[in-house]
Design goal:
about 400 residues; mainly alpha; Growth Hormone, Chain: A; 16 helices
Length: about 400
Amino acid sequence: MNAGSSPASIREDHTSLPQWVAVGVVTLATFTVVTSEMLPVGVLTPMADGLGISTGAAGTSLTITGLVSAVTASIVPRLLGNLDRRTVLAAAMVILAIGNGMTTIADGFGMLVVSRIILGVGMGTVWGMASAVAIRLVAPRNVSLAVSFAVSGVASASVLGVPLGTFVGNVFGWRAAFGSLTAFALIIALALIFSLPTLRHPETDDATVETHPRRSLLRPTVITGLIVVVLLVTAHFAAYTYVRPVLENQTELSANAIALLLLLYGAFGLVGNFASGAAAGRKPRLTVLLLAAGITIGIATLAAFGAGALAAGIAIALWGVTYGGLSVGAQLWMTTAAPDRVEHVTGLYVGIFTGAIALGAAAGGLVVESAGIIPMLWAAAALALASLLIGVFAPARSAASSGS
């Protein structure tokens, strides 16, 4: 694809191979940022030992990254103006590489905090823009599929990123895992420059403003979706951040067995991503609520029957397939609810999503430290159930809204 081609030339009835390649590179970018964020889950114990800190303190590295990326994702779309989105994404990947590089050489909690702050800036920028950019790379009829691919980087991070990072950490040490991510982020930065076209301020937004005054994002369909996302993602990460200690202490699995189980989780998550993308293209709200029900059952099953390896495997598989579809399902809920402000609602959604990651990781750590692992799982299941109930009983749409 010609890097200088205009956005208008992309919006055709047919999506060409170079355009799908560009979507693929954006997918690799989301894969890299989410792997970078979530890798501490897979190497939590050796990472804590290497830095001389507790597993709870090491787990807060996810909280730090989530908080920074939440703020970044919410603010960046409002600051971009007419900047080339391709260049912004590439620069964000370089920032991500710097954060991973600093994690690689961290010698204590202080340097870990700084590295995760830097990583959060890169992550928030990439994840906050990925879906909005993917939409502009394809023909209108392929929008749902493009979003599914872009967001599949999140599920792919669980399928390949975290398990491979865990394996590298087990064999070569956790620092080697973060060092590998440093190099990969730089490669993706170059790929973004050469595969994406020039993408300035969305022309469709300008055209919409000329014919219809821009409405506030604080509309009922958006608010309901964001509340569901906050509760569900908080519940998920309260439990998932500490899934390795759960499997070590309750199921008594070996390190390699845990890596394989995380691979199972991610594989089912990838399936859930594309299945949910297809379903959410038609009914995004219903799709997300079905996913919330599955996440609730998965976590509750792990809490009740997780001492058995088979039951733990079933719970992890159900949890993976349902949570794997959440990102794309909720993203399509947001863009359907606010089609006139895609970049802004995407940034707001990702900011809320990553903020909930931080909240979940912190809350999970507090419950684990004060009450133990099993009470933490039950609390997470209850929170996921609350998100489902709110989504079911909240108004489906407002009189003024056409989304949802």
